[in-house]
Amino acid sequence: MRTDALTRFSHGAASLLVRMWLDSTLLKSPFPIDAPHGVMERTIDGSGAIACCWHHKLLSIVLAFRQLFGRGLCNTRIRALVSESSDGDLIARIFRDLGGNCIRGSSSRRSAEALKDVVRELSDGATVAITPDGPRGPKHCIHDGILHAARLSGKPIIPMTGSFGRYLRFDGSWDQFEVPLPFTRVRVYAGQPMYISRDAGDLETLRAELTLRMRQIGRKAEGDQQRAFAIGRRKQRDGKAIESL
Known about the structure:
3-stranded mixed sheet; Glycerol-3-phosphate (1)-acyltransferase
C-alpha cells in the first residue's frame, strides 16, 4: 500500500513537472505545423487517423496536439497507445493529465486486445497516436500492430515528426529520447497519408513503404537548425553501438 501511494505521488509530481515544461515551450509563440496534405483537419473533424511518429520524437506529437487543442484534449477524440509497463504507467498519467485518453497495450503485452481497442476507436472517428518502434525498440523498426490497425480500420497512417531548436537528448535510453528545452523553437511536420486496404500486400512490403515515408518526413526535420545537449552514455548492444537510421 505504501509503495503504491509513493508511486502515485511520484507519477503525479513527474506529470506536473512535464506539463509545466511542455507549456513553457508553448509560451514562446505558436509554432508552425507543416501539414500540406490537410491531414491535421482529420484530427479536428473526427474523420479518424493514425498519428505515427518515432518513439524518440513522441513529444513533437504531444506539443502539436497541445497547440491545436490547448487544454481541451478531453473534449477531442485524441487517443494514445501506451504500453502496460511501469514506464507506460507514467506516460499514461502524463497524457491523461494533459487531457487526453489512453489505450493500454503494446506488441509484447495485451497486443490483441489493444489492437481491437485501436480499431474500434479509429472506426468511431478518433485519432490514435502510435509510436511504431515503441515501447522498447529497436529504434526505427516498425512493429506489425500499426499496419494491422490501418488495414482493419481503413483509416490512414499519417507520418509525423518534429524538430527542436535546443533539446536534451537522453543517450542512455534505447532511442535517444528528445526533450525540448523551455522557450525553444519547435516545428512539426506531417507527411502524406498512407492507406492500407484489406487486400494489401505482405507486411514486409507495407513496413518498407511506411519506413520510407518516415525517413522522408524525417529528412525535412533534419534540415532545421538544432542543437542537442546529450545526457548519459549511449547503450551498447552485443558490443556495438546502436545505430539509428
